[in-house]
Write a structure and sequence with these properties.
This protein has 1340 residues and is an alpha+beta fold. Strands 9, 14, 17, 18, 19, 20, 21 and 22 form an 8-stranded mixed beta sheet that branches. Mean pLDDT is 76; it is low at 1-24, 123-168, 413-467, 525-535, 816-994, 1314-1320 and 1335-1340.
Length: 1340
């Protein structure tokens, strides 16, 4: 039903009809407008679908109306282009004439006009919500809406009649919404209902808070009072409830807990009663919401009746009776069932005290007194014992607008004296289905409160008259939308002022009609069958609140003029606070917030902060603020600082602001924005220096000067150039650092493995690939190296080595005396003399390590003088170049590493071996997603020794690379071939010389905490070296041949994985990776390391690790079993024979194919590195003889005992269901016609709860073979459950079922298997009267 304003109710003329038809046929233009201003807290996205003939001026008006701005105070520009003039506000051109495309999306940006933010439309002008469309949108507003306050919700929601700009303005309904903190919609619904209850609101206003007696933050009544005042007087569209929840003692985590609104109502009322003790409002809750009923049992033989009086705050009404297939039609029918007595007969007979025997009796409830505010809870949440899940009943249940309760009152009992038989009102009501809803410790005194228009007569004189004074009118419907697992609450409330119904949906308040109320009945069209609830609407009424129709008692809302004095003061305080908040937001709307960086002049580290400056502040004032913010007062004078435009991502100084010290920041930064595409840098200088001007369009270049004679790289020098400069002009610029431009060679490092020699004189830097920030290497010598091709030159080789050398930490093994002879022979000492003189293996190893290290140093660094990689020498060196002699290329064959270069820990494939060069250009940023080498270093440090003395200084030290340092590395496990290729001999030695052989090492001690440092090596190695060559270079330090030790790579979590692929390079390694050397025979070609696990099918942990062993290609299964026997006997204490166990495939925890003794590895059985197999001990002779057989693990389900029997293996000759049934019948004795089976689900052992197995599995599939859907049993190890279909499940009481459910849940959780019924752990709803939960002193 759609309601139109009066001016839309006239009949439509023929001319109007024709115009409407033409408009319908006219093409339409879809405009998507993104608000990029900072005028609002939410940057919204507006959608307009306009006729193509709409003018630009009309477009501006439509956008202004929808966004809530004053037209003419903002600009519109095309959204996907830059540097385009904004659209003309005054133009009368149509959209199509202005470049808009009909039938397509046209993106626009709403921007500031002349640097000023758009002006918000005043409340009087209205927003989109205040148009006549609001009343017509009530159907849309009835359901749950996207909430901008909920984390994860999109903020660009818009509709033809609503935009998020209206969140700043009060709804045209005159009512204020409540912000949803996260999942507090249940709280908002209850608070709005209480606010719209005149008697409760007025009574709360009449209560006066005494600040001297209680902290206002923890006072629940005071915070409710403040909230109600704001709901009545605030100009906001919605207000926060955080102060109220804070008074409950809740923290922020409570906002993410959804609770039941009825439970909240009871807990809140109880908390208010506790807070209101000893006040005039002490009995307010009882007077308004408490009723009385009688719980009775009447003997049918003598008429004797035993009864007691109970009180209630709400009446729980059953939607669908237990075991019934149909729900009650209406609230009246449910009320009738509520008071319908139950006959106690048979085994349930009642012992009559008068008859002194068990007699038939009638047990039931009678209403004695109805409260002034009657609350009905529709029990829509239930538990389905068939599925063992919590469910929601969505059946239809109608409720009247006026409810006559006189048929349900017990007049005679009400007139009788209540004190005669009234026992403890909080006593447990044994026979009542609503005993859990009864309120405890309620007073029976019906006193009067000033805040309500109640009669002052005593309770015995205020007996309600049936048929005349028991008519209640509905005024609140709390609706739940969703399922039993979660959903959304909102309230439909009728105002007693004008009789209009409103939807209070968190911050959205809108008018609704009676038709909308009827939609909350629930259910669906058609018959009300058992499954009707499953297909019904999930949005339905959950709680109903009625008010007694009594003109003498019905109160009206207090208006502002009639507020008590303390409320008037509170209103004034809240108004001032709101104005202050508005002023503060206005300041924030005009505040520029931008990242600020500063290189500390002394610490030489980049500092970061956020500069918040008003847009009207000048650059000079902003510089003073940045100076104080960075706390460099006393380090550098203020006049030695300036702010410059900076790009932190590329480390690029974009421009400086000479002569603009008095320009406002709003003009310099382009207005106030939520984020900026650039940053600011507080640049400093020494007093004797002069700031260099940075002009727009310049690019920054870091120049690294390389000396071929000393093979060193000097620290970088920063220069600024223009992209339109030629290479010749650029060389002349570089020549300022005392280099010859005639012999200069300039190499630009653009991206990975892309060294570009700039040799075309007239080519521009832009054409060569320069970007904002660049890195170049420069060499200017008169050697003949520039006469050869660049890729064959020494310059290329040095830069190539520089990019591919890494530093590794190698931990050496603790060697035993048993290998001492081998060590001595390798280094050339006398073994007998060594054995006599040695005091232990450690001394021999230390001596060998020292001797071999010195030998290697002399071999590879004969001409190097005074070189050191220690941090102290690096930091103390202040010369421009570090002169280090280069070893002969014939001796070392390669370059050493840069010890300080830091690569990320990401592994790469062989195709990326030569693609590992760092860069700061734009290309490197594009390629960084697929390459990991982003070399970082402090550019201001001294020269860092590289191979042959080459030094390295990186370009960038951005956070991108730091973040990438922690990336998880790929495990270095072999998946295809564990051994060597044809280019290696059986010992893993290379048959041909490798191209990359650089290897340099030095010893260092690593403290292991024991006082004795572990012997380690610091190795600088070319990462293109193969693992085989790397191991050969380690032989002198380990003391044995490379075939007798293993290399383990250590990862961040200290896990070690063996590197076994000798033909692979070290390209997956990066700087400072750790390697551990362990003694033991390395794998030869065709060998595979295998982990053996024992399969224990009937144990709680069916998978148990046994041993590590080695299988070889061409070995039979029987041979591998024979080699396993000694290991099993010595390490696992398993004394087995070859025919008493089997090996089978292991796929995670699942047992698979049974390996037969004659199977050959790599021929019949595929095998790979780090392979895993199951070992299964046999109870008898092996039944599996051929591959055509199928081994199935079966398990019997006994429903009469609620028990699963142990596993039994069944070996089938064929994959037919018939044979499986016969085998199962044979081992179980179940007749074939009664036998049913089902395939297990999940991983072995396919555990399932005994409460679910009878219904959840697909029993007795209609197939004839096992290898088809839905079974797909094609391999050994499948799990099959079977049962006798004539056996009925055990009858369980509710307590037995609950106990069994707990046991099963505990069992399945221990085995790590899924528990089908695992309801989310709901946090108990509590309101803390002391301001918060008590903390455990031992809890931290």
């Amino acid at each position: 039903m759609v309601c139109f304003p009066p001016n839309r109710g006239r009949s439509i003329t023929r001319k109007q009809s024709t115009r409407m038809e033409n408009a319908a046929e006219e093409p339409r233009v879809l405009c998507i407008v993104q608000d990029t201003t900072n005028a609002k807290t939410v940057n919204e996205r507006l959608t307009l679908n306009l006729p193509a003939s709409t003018t630009l001026s009309k477009l501006f008006n439509e956008v202004a109306h929808k966004a809530g701005y004053v037209s003419g105070t903002f600009d519109l520009a095309w959204g996907k282009t830059t540097d385009v003039a904004p659209l003309d506000l005054s133009s009368e051109m149509s959209l199509t004439e202005s470049g808009f495309e009909a039938g397509k999306r046209n993106f626009l940006q709403l921007t500031d006009k002349d640097g000023e933010q758009p002006q918000l439309a005043s409340d009087d002008l209205g927003t989109a919500d205040s148009s006549g469309l609001d009343d017509s949108s009530h159907e849309r507003l009835m359901g749950p809406l996207p909430r901008d306050c909920t984390v994860g919700c999109s903020s660009d929601y818009s509709s033809p009649s609503y935009s998020y700009s209206s969140i700043l303005n009060k709804s045209d309904t005159g009512y204020v919404g409540l912000v949803n903190q996260a999942m507090t919609c249940y709280l908002n619904s209850l608070l709005q209902t209480l606010f719209m209850t005149p008697e409760f609101r007025n009574a709360l206003y009449n209560w006066e808070f005494e600040e001297s007696e209680e902290d206002p933050v923890t006072s629940i009544p005071y915070q409710l009072q403040r909230l109600f005042v704001l709901l009545q007087t605030s100009k906001k569209r919605a207000i926060e409830t955080t102060d109220v929840t804070r008074s409950f003692g809740w923290d922020s985590s409570e906002a993410w807990q959804q609770h039941d609104v009825q439970e909240l109502c009871r807990v809140m009322f109880d908390a208010l009663e506790q807070k209101w003790k000893q006040t005039e409002q002490a009995d307010l809750i009882n007077q308004l919401y408490q009723g009385k009923l009688k719980d009775y049992v009447r003997c049918l033989e003598c008429g004797y009746e035993s009864w007691r009086i109970d009180t209630y705050l709400d009446i729980p009404l059953v939607i669908r009776p237990f075991g019934a297939s149909q729900a009650y039609c209406s609230v009246e029918e449910a009320l009738q069932a509520f008071v319908q007595p139950e006959t106690l007969d048979g085994a349930n007979q009642y012992f009559c005290e008068r008859c002194k025997k068990k007699c038939d009796a009638r047990k039931g409830l009678r209403f004695l007194h109805f409260p002034y505010l009657l609350t009905l809870q529709l029990k829509r949440f239930d538990f389905d014992y068939t599925t063992m899940h919590r469910i929601k009943l969505n059946d239809r249940m109608s409720f009247p607008e006026e409810l006559d309760m006189s048929p349900f009152i017990d007049v005679e009992d009400e007139k009788s004296p209540q004190t005669e038989s009234c026992t403890d009102s909080g006593a447990e009501n044994e026979g009542s289905c609503h005993s859990d809803q009864m309120s405890n410790d309620f007073s029976t005194d019906d006193g009067v409160d000033e805040g309500i228009c109640l009669d002052s007569a005593s309770s015995t004189e205020r007996v309600l008259k049936p048929k005349s004074s028991l008519t209640f009118e509905l005024f609140s419907v709390m609706v739940h939308s969703g399922s039993a697992a979660g959903g959304h609450y909102y309230a439909c409330i009728k105002s007693f002022s004008d009789g209009q119904w409103y939807s209070f949906n968190d911050q959205h308040v809108s008018k609704i009609t009676q038709e909308d109320i009827r939609k909350t009945y629930g259910g669906s069209s058609g018959n009300r069958g058992y499954y009707s609830s499953a297909f019904a609407s999930s949005t339905n009424a959950y709680m109903l609140i009625y008010r007694l129709k009594d003109p003498s008692r019905n109160a009206k809302y207090l208006d502002c003029d009639n507020f008590p004095e303390h409320i008037k003061h509170l209103v004034q305080r809240e108004k001032e606070s709101e104005e202050q908040e508005k002023r503060q937001k206005e300041i924030e709307r005009n505040t520029c917030k931008i990242k600020l960086f500063c290189m500390h002049p002394v610490k030489m580290m980049m500092m970061e902060n956020k500069l918040e400056v008003h847009k009207d502040k000048t650059l000079r004032e902003a510089t003073e603020m940045a100076y104080k913010l960075m706390d460099i007062n006393g380090v550098v004078p203020m006049d030695c600082c300036r702010l410059v435009k900076y790009d932190e991502f590329h480390e690029y100084l974009e421009r400086s602001y000479e002569g603009e010290e008095d320009t406002t920041m709003g003009q310099l930064l382009g207005g106030v924005k939520s984020s900026y595409m650039f940053d600011l840098l507080l640049e400093t200088r020494r007093p004797e220096q002069v700031f260099q001007p940075y002009k727009p369009g310049e690019v920054m270049v870091k120049v690294y000067v390389l000396d071929l004679n000393t093979e060193t790289i000097a620290p970088p020098v920063s220069l600024r150039a223009y992209l339109n400069q030629s290479v010749t002009e650029f060389k002349q610029l570089i020549a300022q650092v005392r280099l010859s431009a005639e012999t200069m060679r300039v190499v630009l490092e653009r991206c990975y493995n892309d060294l570009r020699l700039l040799y075309v004189p007239n080519k521009t830097l832009k054409a060569e690939g320069f970007f904002r920030s660049n890195k170049v290497f420069v060499e200017s010598s008169e050697s003949t190296d520039n006469e050869v091709a660049f890729t064959d030159s020494l310059l290329w080789k040095l830069l190539d080595r520089h990019a591919n050398t890494i530093r590794l930490f190698v931990s050496l093994p603790e060697q035993s005396p048993g290998i001492h002879r081998t060590i001595c022979q390798k280094v050339g000492c006398d073994p007998e003399e060594s054995l006599e003189n040695s005091k232990g293996s450690r001394k021999s190893v230390d001596a060998i390590l020292e001797e071999s290290t010195e030998k290697l140093k002399n071999l590879t660094l004969q001409q190097q003088q005074g070189s050191s990689t220690s941090d102290s020498q690096k930091s103390s060196d202040s010369s421009d170049f570090e002169h280090i002699k280069s070893p002969s290329p014939s001796q070392d064959g390669g370059a050493s590493s840069d010890p300080e270069t830091q690569f990320t820990g990401e592994e790469r494939s062989d195709s990326e071996v030569n693609n590992d060069r760092s860069t700061s250009s734009v290309d490197s940023d594009i390629l960084s997603s697929s390459h990991s080498s982003d070399t970082l270093c402090n550019a201001d440090s001294g020269p860092i020794q590289l191979v042959n003395g080459l030094d390295s200084h990186s370009i960038t030290s951005s956070r991108r690379s730091k973040a990438r340092e922690g990336k998880k590395e790929t495990w270095d496990t072999a998946e295809e071939d564990s051994g060597t290729d044809s280019e290696y001999d059986e010992n893993g030695r290379s048959k041909t010389d490798s191209q990359y052989l650089y290897f340099r090492s030095e010893p260092y001690a690593q403290d292991d905490g024991s006082g004795e440092g572990q012997k380690c090596l610091l190795v600088h190695v070319d990462k293109r070296i193969t693992l085989a060559a790397f191991k050969q270079n380690l032989e002198p330090f380990v003391g044995i041949t490379s075939s007798q030790f293993k290399v383990f790579r250590v990862y961040a979590n200290n896990q070690e994985f063996e590197s076994v692929r000798l033909n692979e390079t070290l390209s997956s390694f990066s700087d400072d990776n750790k390697i551990t050397i362990r003694l033991g025979r390395a794998l030869k070609k065709g060998e595979y390391r295998v982990k053996v696990y024992q399969l224990l099918v009937n144990d709680a942990e069916p998978c148990k690790f046994l041993v590590d062993t080695v299988f070889a290609k061409g070995m039979t299964v029987k041979q591998s079993k024979e080699e396993l026997l000694p290991q099993l006997r010595d390490q696992c204490k398993l004394d087995l024979s070859v025919d008493r166990f089997r090996l089978r495939k292991k796929t995670w925890k699942n047992p698979g194919t049974v390996f037969l003794d004659y199977h050959i590895y790599e021929e019949d059985i595929n095998i790979s590195s780090n392979w895993e197999v199951f070992l299964e001990v046999l109870d008898g002779p092996e039944k599996m003889k051929s591959m055509s057989q199928l081994a199935v693990l079966t398990r019997r389900w006994t429903p009469a005992q609620m028990k699963l029997e142990p596993f039994q293996e069944v070996v089938l000759e064929s994959s037919t269901v018939e044979e499986l049934n016969e085998k199962l019948s044979e081992i179980s004795g179940i007749p074939l016609e009664n036998l049913e089976f089902a395939k297990g689900r999940g991983t072995f052992p396919c555990d399932i709860s005994v409460l679910e197995i009878h219904q959840d599995l697909d029993w007795n599939p209609k197939v004839s073979t096992l290898n088809v859907w839905p079974l797909y049993i094609c391999d050994d190890g499948a799990v099959v459950f079977y049962r006798d279909n004539t056996e009925e499940p055990m009858e369980l009481s509710e307590d037995e079922r609950n106990e069994l459910m707990k046991r099963e849940s505990s069992r399945l959780l221990k085995t790590g298997h899924r528990v089908s019924y695992s309801p989310r752990k709901e946090k108990a709803l509590k309101i803390y009267l002391d301001g918060g939960p008590a903390k455990d002193p031992g809890q931290d």
